[in-house]
Amino acid sequence: GQNIDQPTEMTATEGAIVQINCTYQTSGFNGLFWYQQHAGEAPTFLSYNVLDGLEEKGRFSSFLSRSKGYSYLLLKELQMKDSASYLCAVKDSNYQLIWGAGTKLIIKP
Amino acid sequence: GAVVSQHPSWVICKSGTSVKIECRSLDFQATTMFWYRQFPKQSLMLMATSNEGSKATYEQGVEKDKFLINHASLTLSTLTVTSAHPEDSSFYICSAEVLAGGPNEQFFGPGTRLTVL
In terms of CA atoms, which chain A residue is nearest residue B43? Predict the structure, then answer.
């Protein structure tokens, strides 16, 4: 079966750095997405990786290793507004998006 | 970026009634739209994939006769929850895929919160 694993919840301090990991086992791979979802709102697109390596976008970076079936989202200089759920999703061989359960990130002052 | 709207943003209805939710892509054409539902503190659950001009593809366990999906144009898809019951109360979110040679990420509507009394 297809499976995406990410931690259920993480806590970090304002101003610090946090890394959210995602491992996946899917039938084929056509890209990995990270989305941010604030409580009661719809997800918003953060990043996309299809080749191995690091993609940097401001305070957020996303890394992919296809051979290991592994990705992480790195958030730097954490702000209180970064408190949200972070969803990892993979497009399989049929270009269907398989969603992880999400990681709830709690930022403390 | 691409904008997707949803209407209504929230609705309260009586058990047994039907509710229609609209999803529109405002500044692009979406050949494929997706309908999700999300229960509190849980992740997104894909209900169906909607393709313009053809029948929707439903995920396993989703009743196609209860959740009617119509994708009549390249900018509009509708989800009708028929004979709604309290267990149908949930957050319903649509998304549209932008096919522009890039990552083809999904852009989400703001969601519709349905409460069935």
Answer: A101
Tracing tokens 């969803």 back to the chain, one arrives at A87
Mutation for A interface: B41, B43, B98, most A CBs within 10 A: B43
Query: Is B102's pLDDT higher than 70?
Result: no
CA distance A92 to B3: 25
What percent of chain B is helix, strand and coil (3-state, nearest 5)? Answer: 5, 50, 45
Taking contacts as CB-CB distances below 8 angstroms, the residues of chain B near A99 are 43-44, 46
Q: What is the tens place of the pLDDT at every residue in B68-85?
A: 999 888 899 999 999 999
Residue found under tokens 């969601």: B111
Min Cα separation A78/chain B (Å)? 22
Question: What is the CB neighbour count within 10 angstroms for residue A4?
Answer: 22
Q: Where are the alpha helices (H) located in chain A, listed in sequence order?
A: none
Chain B touched by A41 (CB under 8 Å): yes
> Tens digits of per-residue pLDDT, A3-35?
999 999 999 999 999 999 999 999 999 999 999
Given pLDDT bands bounded at 50, 70 and 90, which one contains residue A40?
A: confident
